[in-house]
Every structure is written in C-alpha cells, then in structure tokens.
Amino acid sequence: MQFDLGSTTLSELGKGTTASSTDLGTLIRQLIAAADPLEGKFNGAGKAAFDSFKLRADEVTDALNGALNAILGGQSGMDTAFGAGDQESESNAHQNMAGANFDAARFSGR
Fold it and tell me: How far apart are CA 65 and CA 25, in angstroms?
C-alpha cells in the first residue's frame, strides 16, 4: 500500500477542519436564533422539548466543537509524524547513497 501525500495536504486539511468548526458553531447559533419566534408557542411535551433544545444548544455546540478540535489535534499529530517520516526517509536515503559504490554498478564493460 502506498500513501501519496503532498507536503501540505494535512495542514490544508487542518485549515478546512478549523473553518468547519467555526461554520458549525455559527450554524447552530443561527438555528437557535431562527427558533426564537417559536418561543411560547408550544404547550406540554412540545414546550418541554423546545425548552430542552434551547437549554442544551450551547452544550451540543461545545460537544461538537470539542469533537472537531480532537480531530484537528489528530490531523496535526499526523502532519508532524508524516513530516518527520519524510525527513527521516530523506536522511536514510542520503546515508545509503553515501555508502553505495555507484561505479561498481556501471555496465559499460570497462
């Protein structure tokens, strides 16, 4: 199996995740604001569910943003690991090339 990641793939993915986190929080706040005109329109179980939604909206927003931040942390860790692996691979290649006898591999017949 081969993974072909560009040097900026994971950092760009991280930027997208950060933007998504901001967008998600904004969308949830807009949903709550859009529900404001419904305040006081429900009775019984509907009112209880609506009140619960309003009370828990910040909790849900925080939980979703926490999950996205955890994903972002994982992406950052992968970016660091892939970068270190790339540098180690380059270093190993240079060390092996330094010890290789390229003249012995010539097939010119001399």
Answer: 7
